[in-house]
Design goal:
The complex is a heterodimer of chains A (115) and B (114). Chain A is an all-beta fold and 115 residues long. Chain A is built from no helices and 11 strands. The chains are: A mainly beta (115), B mainly beta (114).
Chain lengths: 115, 114
């Protein structure tokens, strides 16, 4: 079974631009969670989508948004990029919602650099 | 606030020795805990999990211990191998109202000396 895939793997953007990252979960998984990973803050939860609905949201500004499609694929968007948004963005899929304590499988991440 | 933290940033062990990685959590409502391993250039990989109704769980060469009294979690790796070199994260799942989310610790680097 194919794992979680994320595209693109690497991205360079300039301040003020917007970016869209994509995540394809494991086949059959309905939950997709997004995380931001930085050396200083570690892994921080952005949001979770389950069956096209946002189930939970972390403490990030409204510039960070996401959505999930009927095939469970998910996208996250960051508008008006700031230098501090440079990070590894990780997507994780699970069979059910994280509230049911399902194991999450992570993708390789998208490395975003904002200049 | 709620946080999950790791006691040491790095751990260096001799190949063949046992490794113990510790983690403290502060949310007494957390009911599910996971250890992840992250190798350079890859996403976190699930190692082992434990629910709050258990205090010990064993996998292949790994054991997780949960002490709810002191809110402490540990990962024991037996006969540590060079391939175990990675960053290890503990994570807790805590309910906030009707929802829950995974909160990760900062991570600890395990370095295995040949």
């Amino acid at each position: 079974k194919a794992g979680v895939t994320q595209t693109p793997r690497y991205l360079i953007k300039t301040r003020g631009q917007q970016v869209t990252l994509s995540c394809s979960p494991i086949s059959g998984h309905r939950s997709v969670s997004w995380y931001q990973q930085t050396p200083g803050q570690g892994l921080q939860f952005l949001f979770e989508y389950f069956s096209e609905t946002q189930r939970n949201k972390g403490n990030f500004p409204g510039r960070f948004s996401g959505r999930q499609f009927s095939n469970s694929r998910s996208e996250m968007n960051v508008s008006t990029l700031e230098l501090g948004d440079s990070a590894l963005y990780l997507c994780a899929s699970s069979l059910g919602s994280s509230g049911a304590n399902y194991e999450q499988y992570f993708g390789p991440g998208t490395r975003l650099t904002v200049t | 606030g709620e946080s999950v933290g790791l006691h040491l940033p790095t751990l260096s062990v001799q190949e063949g020795d046992n490794s113990i990685i510790n983690c403290a959590y502060s949310n007494s409502a957390s009911d599910y805990f996971i250890w992840y391993k992250q190798e350079s250039g890859k996403g976190p990989q699930f190692i082992i999990d434990i629910r709050s109704n258990m205090d010990k769980r064993q996998g292949q060469r790994v054991t997780v211990l949960l002490n709810k009294t002191v809110k402490h979690l540990s990962l024991q790796i037996a006969a540590t191998q060079p391939g175990d070199s990675a960053v290890y994260f503990c994570a807790e799942n805590a309910y906030t109202g009707a929802n829950s989310k995974l909160t990760f610790g900062k991570g600890i680097t395990l370095s295995v000396r040949p």
